Amino acid sequence: MKPRISMITLGVNNLEASVQFYEEGLGLPRMDSPPEVAFFTLNGSWLGLYSRDALAEDAGISPEGSGFAGIAIAHNVDSEAAVDDVLKQAVAAGARLVKPAQKVFWGGYSGYFADPDGYLWEVAHNPLFWVGPRDEGL
């Protein structure tokens, strides 16, 4: 297998609310798609939003479950100030601040927010792992 992530699909409880959060609140560019799914262009991959029940059915598993899902999506930015800005933008769009931005043990600066369905996003500045100037904001 060649290492690559093409798409991250989140099973959401309210597609309309989640689309509003990601498109209007965070400013992600939405692609044309059928009404039962939403796709957003990321830098080299895509984010998909799909009904939690339908996604679980597609995978052949139960949609029941709560608490920590064992995954966090990371978004790296070019400065500590950019971490603060993205976290503020997410909270203003309806996210819940889970962990305020702070210096972290690995030498960077990061914080976490949860989207309307509770999916964790880490917003981080890692001076040793910055991907470059083509990435602006979230």
TrEMBL record:
Transmembrane segments: none annotated. It comes from the Bacteria. Pfam families: Glyoxalase (PF00903). Residues 4-126 form the VOC domain. PANTHER family: BLR2520 PROTEIN (PTHR36503:SF1). This is VOC family protein. It comes from Azoarcus taiwanensis.
